[in-house]
Amino acid sequence: MSRKDRRRQKPARRPAGKGKGVDPRAALAAALEYHRAGRLDKAERLYERVLGQQPDNADALHLLGLAAHQAGRHGRAIELIDKATRISPENGHFFNNLGEAYRGAGRHGEAVQCYRQALQIDAGDAIALNNLGNALAEQGKMEEAAASYRRALDIDPGYAEAHGNLGDALAEQGKMDEAAACYRRALGINPHLAQVHDGLATALIALGRTQEAVASYRRAVDIDPGYVPALNNLGNLLTDLGKWDEAEDCYRRTLEIAPDLAQVHLHLGNLLTDRKKPQEALASYRRALKIKADFSEAAAQLLHQSQMAFLWRDLEELSPRLDQLTAAEIAGNEVVGESPLINVSRCIDPERNLAVARSWSRDIGPRASKPVADSSMRDRRGKKARITIGYLSRDFYNHATAHLMLSLFALHDREKFRVCAYSYGPSDGSSYRQRIERDCDRFVDIRDLNDVEAAKRIGDDKVDILVDLKGYTQGNRLGICAPRPAPVQATYLGFPGTTGAGFIDYIITDRVVTPEEHLPFYSEQPAYLPHTYQVNDHRQEISKRGFTRADFGLPDDAAVFCSFNQAYKIEPVMFAVWADVLNATPGSVLWLLASTAFAEGNLRGEAKARGVAPERLIFAGKLPKDEHLERTRLADLVLDTRIYNGHTTTSDALWAGVPVITLKGAHFASRVSASLLYALGLPELITPSLEDYRALALRLARNPGDIHALKEKIAKNRRAQPLFDTPRFTKNIERAYQGMWEVYLADERPRPIQVSED
After folding, report:
1. Cβ neighbours for 284, distance < 8 A, ≥ 6 positions apart
2. In the predicted model, what is the mean pLDDT of residues 351-358?
3. How far apart are CA 462 and CA 565, in angstroms?
4. What is the pLDDT of residues 606-619, one digit of tens each?
5. How many CB atoms lie within 10 A of CB 69?
6. What is the pLDDT of residue 367?
7. What letter would DSSP give residue 4?
8. pLDDT tens profile 646-689
9. Are strands 465-468 and 387-393 parallel, antiparallel or unpaired?
10. What value does the mean pLDDT of the chain take?
11. How many Å apart are CA 168 and CA 232, to the nearest integer?
12. Which residues pair with 180 in a beta bridge?
């Protein structure tokens, strides 16, 4: 809920009636009593009776207009109160409430004029100053709004609502410490303001004080159980804290009160997605879109969950709809509802990928404070013995990023580099986490710091090159980079594409995933590594359990095709090719990662529609990584996905010794497997078209000897080619870091860097 939905004001002043004659005065007095009691219908009838006898009774006109405003009939209110101001132009209260009617109608400019007129009549009217601040805030003029609230508080230091509104204005400017202090002052005067408890909680979240925020939201709901913003915000925070039962209860209570809040249906859908309740989640997203047809964020989430559930017929309607919404937002310079990650998973147009990423980065950038390490950066522009590298991620635990990077940290040359890691993700106690903590010179858990505090910590540690490993992937905190805590900042590994962010200088990449002709679609300068951009662990263990195909329900006497990519990467165009391959290879099966029963049933239905018996799809459950690698060896051939290739998945298959065929696409995410295959000396597995992909898969399926030869080549090349040579990779990425630092030392703008092994 936005802060403008909870601008606070005192009840309007209602002067006593002044009509001539006994009956109008008595009727006006009775009307005021009804008005104060909230009986607007009876009050209005009496005001109208007064006006029937005294059409120019300014008080009756004003109060009837005020009742209309309170009933939501703002046009009628404006008409009546404006007439009252013409009859009594020296009454500042009339102009103040005319301003409120204009503000209720969304006519903020005219509201501002009315409040200023009220203040010309009485410069000491604190209520008019507060209301002027509200109108200015709704125009986005937060500094002017704050000044108006402060003037109100100079006049009336005990004006709790103005303290709360000043807190809102400061929060909108990112001044969360000051905002929290204002909210606390308001609550010290009046502890029963639910809206202020809600605002305080939001500020506390930004300050990293989540438990206090929970208590503050709960207090708001205790005061006003029907206060929708606090209920929704509490649900959001409880979701983030993993208290899913309570969060779901908050959302459902919110929707009982206000069933047409599309944003809350979206939040509920996101929670239900996390709870692995896909059908309920889909229903929530659909409800959000039914309420608000142009709700692009809901459309994007509905599309993504339809991808996850293999609801491909729904995609036929959703994808062009989301394209239209996204294009309109880009054209209007609005923040795009579709995330960059969803966009690259379905759109192979790098120009559109950049536009979406830029939109998201602009939403991050304005929230950042000034650079956190200006002076220290200037001091550090000089030759030094060691460059300090800071790796920033959520994924320093049992996660694909940690699997790939595990050996890198220890292999860095400590005579040339100091290695720090900044983690805002869970500490799972796994061997991955323990090794990364051990192998870094400094490992800092920043989970409890907000973005600005985390950036300050990185700046205080004098990190020279900050490497963000998340980009726009799930759970990212790219905002930590926005205040520029390091003089050089790069994006690497986690997100397959540009960040679109002016505060990221370099993307660590290679010439396959980022050919020179694609550079116009990157905001960063490329730091080109000589082989593949993707690090791999040369010491990754493969279990020796002795798995057989029978252990996983696989046939011993037929081809096993495999794709252990996540469900959203599997789409109908490539699946049709896979079905062709299965239909042309008797007895063969397609081995996939397990999903929800709902999704698996849908995919089996899609297979049947393409002539493939549903039982020929076999789903593999989760195993420890070393056992997963061993079972992967049971496959004959890995079939890569089209728009969003396998990344770690492809590396895992090749490490396990299984050939992967891929289609080299038109954007980063669709060219990763090609990069990996080139680095392993297997260009023959890279195809330029769907037809070539299909033909290669069929040729290999029909010639087991060719697959055997490829497996032998992989076993040989694993030792001889660059892909799994982690020490060699480490030297190359260090050369990239040295190149970035040399550009910085020369006081030059970031420029392309090509790492050479010569």
Report:
1. 265, 266, 268, 269, 272
2. 98
3. 39
4. 999 999 999 999 99
5. 25
6. 56
7. G
8. 999 999 999 999 999 999 999 999 999 999 999 999 999 999 99
9. parallel
10. 95
11. 18
12. none
The CB-based long-range contact list for 21-27 (8 Å cut-off, 24+ gap) reads 21/53, 21/54, 23/53, 24/50, 24/53, 24/54, 24/57, 24/60
Q: How far apart are CA 186 and CA 164, in angstroms?
A: 6
Rounded to whole angstroms, the Cα distance separating 522 from 542 reads 37
Distances in whole angstroms, Cα of residue 705 to Cα of each of 90, 306, 361, 412, 700: 98, 39, 50, 41, 8
Report yes or no: 302 and 285 within 8 Å, Cβ to Cβ. Answer: yes
Of the candidates 98, 97, 19, the residue with the CA atom closest to the CA atom of residue 55: 19
CB atoms within 10 A of CB 703: 11
Q: How many CA atoms lie within 13 A of 672 on its CB side?
A: 24
The single-letter code of the amino acid at 79 is E
- Give the three-state DSSP class for 732: helix
Angle at 563 between CA 663 and CA 602, to 5 degrees: 110
At residue 544, what is the residue type? K
Q: Residue holding tokens 């404070």?
A: 369
Q: What is the pTM for the complete model shown?
A: 0.90
In the block, residue with structure tokens 């550079």: 519
Q: Is 468 helix (H, G, I), strand (E, B) or coil?
A: strand
What CA–CA distance (Å, rounded) separates 751 from 740? 8
Q: Which two tokens stand for residue 107?
A: 């006519």
The dihedral region occupied by 208, where left means phi > 0, alpha psi between -120 and 50, and beta the remainder, is: left
Q: What is the pLDDT of residues 199-254, one digit of tens each?
A: 999 999 988 899 999 999 999 999 999 999 999 999 999 999 999 999 999 999 99
3-state secondary structure of 73: coil
Q: Where are the alpha helices (DSSP H) in 71-175?
A: 74-87, 92-104, 108-121, 126-138, 142-155, 160-172
Place of tokens 């002027």: 132
> What is the set of domains in the chain, with CATH numbers?
3-190 (1.25.40.10), 272-367 (1.25.40.10), 374-528 (3.40.50.11380), 549-724 (3.40.50.2000)
Provide the 10 A C-beta neighbour count for residue 346: 21
CB–CB of 346/643 below 8 Å?
Answer: yes
Contacts of 41 (CB under 8 A, 6+ apart): none
DSSP per-residue string spanning 230-281: HHHHHHHHHHHTT-HHHHHHHHHHHHHH-TT-HHHHHHHHHHHHHTT-HHHH
Which contacts (CB < 8 Å, 24+ apart) does range 753-758 have? 753/506, 753/525, 753/526, 753/527, 753/528, 754/528, 755/527, 755/528, 755/529, 755/530, 756/530, 757/530, 757/731, 757/732
